[in-house]
Design a protein that fits this description.
CATH architecture: 3-Layer(aba) Sandwich
Radius of gyration: 19 Å
Distance between the termini: 42 Å
Number of strands: 12
Strand order of the largest sheet: 6-7-8-3-9-10
Oligomer: single chain
Structural class: alpha/beta
Number of domains: 1
CATH superfamily: P-loop containing nucleotide triphosphate hydrolases
CATH topology: Rossmann fold
Order of helices and strands: EEEHEEHEHHHEHEHEEHHEE
Mean pLDDT: 94
């Protein structure tokens, strides 16, 4: 990558505050196309707050977040929506609509105001549903789906948006083991194709397996960011999560188990 090419996502001297409590103080990160970043930390450490700040939905207490070299305030809402997509931690109840209609919401940043979805938009949405394995549900009412199926609809909506950057808050919510791995493989594949992916995960072992970079919040205002192999070390994880861990190699993968 050219040295002149800005990172897809960049945070500089970032600090976040909730009330009178600092969640993190002055750390930096850079995410380039082709990379996956995982945010880890104990409950209440500020993982969702950090992700929303990286998405431009929340102003940091200090520092700046840049999307392709420009601060969010320097871009229009439509520009931002075409460049980055956010998966919320919990999916709100949908209005009465079909799975396909819900997925087509992801096409809105690409459709002119007052225009209808085109055949191309529908094809993109159907392809997104097929990619998460629920194309056969396209005509079903969203309200009739299980929690895991709704989560896959939400992911398909992001795919239909076709952003350069995916920001995912606990994308494995409501998914069983098979679909957890499928979803992580899907976003790993998108990264190989040139996207950037940043996600909040709770499973240290899945983070170790899929992350190129990591941010570790300790819940006491401390945060470290860097290459995953350097951040996801037993001592640092034990300090953040407050429990001793054993590190092992299983089937070519590093795993951590409670000691």
């Amino acid at each position: 990558m050219s040295a002149a090419t800005p990172p897809l996502l960049e945070a500089e001297a970032l600090a976040l505050q909730a009330g009178d409590r600092w969640l993190c103080r002055e750390f930096a990160l850079r995410l380039h196309p082709g990379e996956c970043l995982v945010v880890l930390g104990p409950n209440g450490a500020g993982k969702t707050t950090l992700l929303h700040t990286l998405a431009g939905l929340r102003h940091p207490g200090a520092g700046v977040v840049r999307l392709l070299g420009r601060a969010y305030r320097e871009r229009t809402a439509r520009e931002v929506a075409r460049l980055r997509a956010l998966l919320a931690q919990d999916q709100s109840d949908y209005f009465s609509c079909t799975v396909l209609e819900a997925t087509l919401v992801g096409r809105h940043p690409h459709i002119d105001r007052w225009a209808w979805e085109s055949r191309t938009d529908r094809d993109i949405a159907l392809a997104a549903l097929a990619r998460v394995g629920i194309a056969e549900l396209a005509g079903r009412e969203v309200s009739s789906l299980s929690g895991g199926e709704r989560q896959r609809v939400a992911i398909a909506t992001l795919l239909a948006q076709q952003p350069s950057l995916y920001l995912l808050d606990e994308p494995l919510n409501h998914l069983d083991l098979r679909f957890q791995v499928q979803v992580l493989e899907l976003f790993r594949s998108l990264a190989r194709d040139g996207a950037g992916v940043a996600m909040v995960l709770h499973d240290i072992n899945l983070a170790t397996r899929y992350a190129d970079q990591a941010v570790l919040l300790d819940g006491r205002g401390g945060a470290i960011a860097g290459r995953a192999r350097e951040i996801l070390q037993p001592g640092r994880l034990e300090d953040a999560f407050g429990h001793p861990l054993l590190r092992a190699e299983v089937g070519g993968h590093t795993v951590f188990v409670p000691r």
